[in-house]
Structures are given as structure tokens and as C-alpha cells.
């Protein structure tokens, strides 16, 4: 196996690809044990990456394993077996009623409720499940899903239903815990699982904006136009909270550098074909001189690209950016203000 110096000299894989390589190296049984502790989005993301890996060299595999061993070596035993400690601490501090909902949010791998089970389903399956429900029920379900999954579900629903549901999502602010629990109980009858305390905070304009960010551009544009026809102020409020590709200009240099480490060159080239000069320069300035020159050459050599392909690549990068922002690795600046 290569030593640490050799590993450092190897071209590093994006973290997602490195995770996929590590799981493939572990074997089915050990990899399965790790996946059990991941959420639905993480399982889908790493699983898709594992399926798409090609041309991974032995040296890259060794570099991933070395990095993993070094990372494990930096870890301590603190936190192991701490779930019960956290439960006892919060129950003592807040009382069981107040603490129960907070415990469900904090601890990973807890009980799965009927609503939580939907997060593991394909978007089309969720859409079929709620297709004939009242729009308010549909809006609650959509609000409960992760934004990218919610966008997929809405994309499958009929256009008129999509508009009605999105208007309701944006207008949601809170819901009686009992009503949410009743919905959860209905779903529990269809999916096995345990009941957990429901939260009353759900939906809202920010939720609507997050969902819109993940929609296909054509669907997003039509839906936004329809929302503005009904309520222009609401449409503008949603639009201002959306984070679009051009807003990457507002991310600081360190954030851009972190993002670029996660994006493949192929996706970046296609995405930048549809970017303005300022954003392209922002990207170039956060790369090494040699890498920037190669990227410029690749952009110039790249032939015409379909708008749909550019938008898909840009959304891929935005998905990575939001993931990094959620984990606190970067800060997304600005909002999706309409560019002239």
C-alpha cells in the first residue's frame, strides 16, 4: 500500500465518490451495517454513486482507505453510547412531554413514523399514494418531505393540483399536533413502524422556495407564473427566498473552493456553459492557475449544449451546495433575486 506521502500526491476523489469507494471496499455485510445508520437521501445519494463508479484505480482506492484510517485515528470514544445519556439529560431538564419531540429530532436512527416512511419511497409512489387525497393533506405531506423529493412528487401531479398544493404549502405555518398525529396514524396502518411525537411546525414560504429550487426549470417557471397570477406578493416572496445558480457569486471564496472539491469537471463544464462571465471568473479565481487554464480550454472546446443539460448540471451543483450548507461546511449568500 502507498505511504501517506504518495496518497497525498494522488488526485483526490470528491467526498461522495470516496464514500462510495469505501463502501464497495468493505464488502456487502459491513457496508449494509453502515447504510442502516443513514437517512433516505444519504442512502440514495451514495447508492447512486456506487452504481455509477467507473475507472477507479487501485491507487485511488488505497488513497481513500488511507484517508479513512487517518480520520478514524483522529476520533475519540466520546459520543459512543451517548443516546441514553442525551435522553435522560433532556427528560430531566425539560420533562418528558417537552423533551420527547426534541429527542426524536436529535437522535438518528430513532422510531420511524408513517410520515417518515414516505421519505424512503420513490417520488412516484408517494404521488400515487396522495393523488386522491384532499389538497390540504397533500400539502402537509409535501411539506414534510425533503425539498428534492417534494419537488419530484409535485412534478408528477397534475398541473392544477400542483398549483393548489404549492399555494397551500406556502400558506402553511403550523398545524395542530393532533391533526398531524391523525395523518401519521393513517399512514401507520399502511406502513409498519412506531409512533413518535409529531411537530406542529410545518410548511411555509421557505419550504415552498426550497421545493421550487429542486423542480425542473420548465415546471418551476410555469408554476411561479401561476402563483404570481393568484398572489403576486406571495410569488415574489417565494422567489426572493430561492437560491439559484447565479447566487453562487455571493458565496465566499473558501465556500467556492469547498464546493469545487465536490463537483466533477464534466458537470462543472456543462453548468458553466450557461453561466455569465462574472460567475465564470469567480470559479476560475478559486482554482489553481493550471486548473483554471484547463477549464477555460475545455469550455472553449465544448460544443453547443442543450439548455436542459445545462440546467440539469446547474441543479446538480446546487444540490451539492445545499448539502454542504446544511452540514455547515459552506454558507450560501444572497437570495434568488431575478436577474436582468
Summarize the structure.
This protein is mainly alpha-helical and 340 residues long. Helix content is 67%, strand content 0%.
Question: If you had to describe this structure to a student in words, what would you say it looks like?
Answer:
This protein is an all-alpha fold and 340 residues long. It has four domains: 4-73, no CATH class; 81-109, no CATH class; 111-241, Flagellar motor switch protein FliG, alpha-alpha superhelical domain (Annexin V, domain 1, Orthogonal Bundle), CATH 1.10.220; 245-326, Orthogonal Bundle (Annexin V, domain 1), CATH 1.10.220. The protein is 67% helix and 0% strand. The chain is built from 21 helices and no strands. It has helices at 4-9, 15-26, 28-35, 40-52, 58-73, 83-94, 96-106, 114-118, 123-130, 135-144, 147-156, 159-171, 177-190, 205-213, 217-230, 232-241, 253-260, 265-272, 277-285, 289-301, 307-326. The longest helix has 20 residues, at 307-326.
Q: What's the Cα radius of gyration?
A: 22 Å
Q: Into which percentage range does the β-strand content fall?
A: under 5%
CATH superfamily of the largest domain: Flagellar motor switch protein FliG, alpha-alpha superhelical domain
Q: What's the structural domain tally?
A: 4
Question: How many strands?
Answer: 0
Instruction: Give the number of helices.
Output: 21
Helix coverage percent: 55-70%
* Head-to-tail CA distance between termini: 54 Å
Spans with pLDDT under 50 lasting ≥5 residues? 1-10, 108-112, 192-200, 334-340
- What's the pLDDT, averaged over the residues? 77
Tell the overall outline: globular
Which structural class do you get from the secondary structure elements? Answer: mainly alpha
CATH level-1 class of the largest domain: Mainly Alpha
**What is the correct CATH architecture of the largest domain?**
Orthogonal Bundle
> How can the largest sheet be summarized?
none
CATH topology of the largest domain: Annexin V, domain 1
Element order: H for helix, E for strand:
HHHHHHHHHHHHHHHHHHHHH
